[in-house]
UniProtKB/TrEMBL annotation:
It comes from the Bacteria. The lineage of its organism: Bacteria, Bacillati, Actinomycetota, Actinomycetes, Micrococcales. This is SGNH/GDSL hydrolase family protein. InterPro entries: SGNH_hydro, SGNH_hydro_sf. Pfam families: Lipase_GDSL_2 (PF13472). GO terms for molecular function: hydrolase activity. The keyword Cell cycle does not apply. Residues 55-207 form the SGNH hydrolase-type esterase domain. The keyword Transport does not apply.
Length: 243
């Protein structure tokens, strides 16, 4: 997409995203405390932050959403306990993310999972602005966390897999999301302790069906497969002390 075409489409996409997003008000989402755990020794401490999958659209409990699904998937692979906290905002963007987490203590986490980009794709945030804002945010996470904290940046989920965005304008947003994902992957490779995790839609699911606990299990599995190597298979007492 040429820059002039993108610029001309921005007001159209913003108006459409606002109208379509209003339909999410009727979609179930968790109302319980944003925490989940999987019992075990030497627990890994994980923070899930962002919009989209972090919010838990489609389920009524964070245990059925990404926090609980990730706790179980990661524990099954490491044989350790997992404690997950979630901080989320349906409207978060790469630009707002620094302010959203600035006052939080990140040093207590072994891993930080970031779910951003859906809102930026829907409103056609320029690749240049995305790279600048996401770089500032990810660098803040690396600086503000301990020397052993691993950061996992999730790719933008397939836009048209969300029923309210499944249409011609959704196709434009999905193509833009692919550009953002490519930029994110390159950026993550340039940063220490930072891994890009592409997301795919769960195969065989009708496009008119909103996400369910099975979708979060699918995404948690993708995440856990990427996390288990960087987190390592440590024995109790071997974890590095925070800086």
């Amino acid at each position: 997409m040429g820059e002039f075409i993108r610029w001309a489409l921005v007001p159209v996409m913003r108006a459409w995203a606002a109208r379509a997003g209003a339909g999410l008000g009727h979609v179930p989402r968790p109302t319980d405390a944003p925490h989940a755990r999987s019992a075990g020794i030497d627990s890994d401490r994980v923070l899930v932050f962002g919009s989209g999958p972090a919010v838990g659209w489609g389920v009524l409990s964070h245990d059925l959403g990404l926090p609980g699904s990730l706790a179980r998937a990661l524990s099954a692979r490491t044989r350790r306990g997992v404690e997950v906290d979630a901080i989320f905002n349906p409207h978060s963007t790469a630009r707002s993310a620094v302010a959203d987490l600035r006052d939080h203590d990140l040093s207590r986490y072994d891993a930080i999972v970031v779910t951003l980009g859906g809102n930026d794709a829907l409103t056609l945030t320029s690749v240049r602005a995305w790279r600048r804002d996401l770089s500032a945010f990810l660098r803040m996470l690396v600086r503000g966390s301990s020397r052993s904290t691993q950061v996992f940046m999730m790719g933008v989920q397939p836009i048209r897999a969300v029923p309210v965005f499944d249409g011609p304008l959704g196709s434009i947003a999905e193509r833009h999301a692919q550009l953002l994902n490519q930029t994110t992957a390159v950026l993550c490779r340039s940063l220490p302790r930072t891994t890009f995790v592409p997301l795919t839609a769960r195969p065989g699911v009708p496009s008119d069906r909103f996400r369910t606990a099975e979708d979060y299990r699918h995404w948690a599995g993708l995440l856990a497969d990427s996390m288990v190597g960087p987190l390592g298979v440590e024995r109790p007492g071997e974890r590095e002390s925070p800086a």
